[in-house]
Amino acid sequence: MLSNYNEIVAEAIRRAESEExxxxxxxxxxMLPFVVGWRDCVILQKAAHPKVGDVVVAWVxxxxxxxxxxxRIDGERVTLMGDGNLRGTETCTLSDVKALATHVVDVKxxxxxxYNRWRRRAVRVWWYVRPVRRYLLAIYRxxxxxxxx
Length: 149
Fold this sequence. Notes:
By secondary structure, the protein is an alpha+beta fold.
């Protein structure tokens, strides 16, 4: 199944790199609470100049794609972390950053800008509450009926 999803993501990236607007369904919960897997989709575009704070699709560990936020760029080395992750990070190179997520499309078909003022502030607060993120995510999952598959 991972292979099939990688193929779908690779095709979405190919289209985004050719300047097409691409909507990609998201699986997994690593971007909670800002992107909900198996419910939301993201709109992708070419990742021309990735920067810290961007939500990107990147090829990591030489075997899989992830949709995570860039938390650090040191030269060519990029460190990524999902908003729903408690500690874990992934690293890749700038050339492994394949597409930029610009918007989230929710279950009702509404489109939300990932970088509006409200979300940028919320993401900043979310970063600083990492020590209690586990508890906040547990409350979120219970109140929003999120089930891990």
